[in-house]
Amino acid sequence: MASSSVSQGRVALVTGAGQGIGRAIALRLASDGFDVALNDLQANEENLVSVLAVVEANGRKGCYIFADISQEAQVEEMISQVVGKLGGLDVMVCNAGISIMKSFFDTTVEDFDRITSVNLRGTFLCYKHAGKQMVAQGRGGRIIGACSGTGKKGQPLFSAYAASKFGIRGLTQVAALELGPHGISVNAFAPGPVKTPMYDHFETVIGAPKGTLEQELNKTAALGRIALPEDIAVVVSFLASREASLITGQTISVDGGIVFD
Fold this sequence. Notes:
Keywords: NADP. By secondary structure, the protein is an alpha/beta fold. Helices cover about 45% and strands about 15% of the residues. The protein has 9 helices and 7 strands. The chain starts with a helix and ends in a 7-residue tail after the last strand. The model has no long low-confidence stretch (mean pLDDT about 95).
């Protein structure tokens, strides 16, 4: 995993950093020695303030920036602010994403467009503008996207979400090929079920008694449990490190053994 002495002076940006997986990633990278820029929507400002306090308590510089990653002008401005406030950009973690649970026939065009605009277009915009900044800096970099087990194997009730996450795998491979000559690696992590607020929402939607969904999902994992946000953060920590310099174009499952490549 990343050494804090090696990571010091490097800057990471994490989208969707206010809670869940994004929060865990931001805190892990801060403990690895990165200065960390936090992104989320303005509605999550209270959460960002809390995460920033922990980043700074680790002795690292930090800031938070509001942006809707589905909007190109806001992504460009976000990258510009990170560079202005923290001095550059070395690691881009495109974590932000949304989901819905609806049958294929009940999913509307508006549902589909909303999910893909954040998950797929948002990831494309973050890859694109972070990549441009890293190329301009001339010191390489790491770009890391958020796929899903549903981006490797489709699941009922997740048509729009699956489409967006399958798209991220292809986008990651193309970006890896084009940015590789600049010393920039591009990879993605693919969680299965993770104990986050989004997971709790799914339990409510299907009407499952609290805790029963986790028990059932644990049975599907070869290692007998679903992931915590910190499990995902460990993998991102490695992908962000210099030790991962020869890994690119990959989408790595972090699910306890639910989906195999």
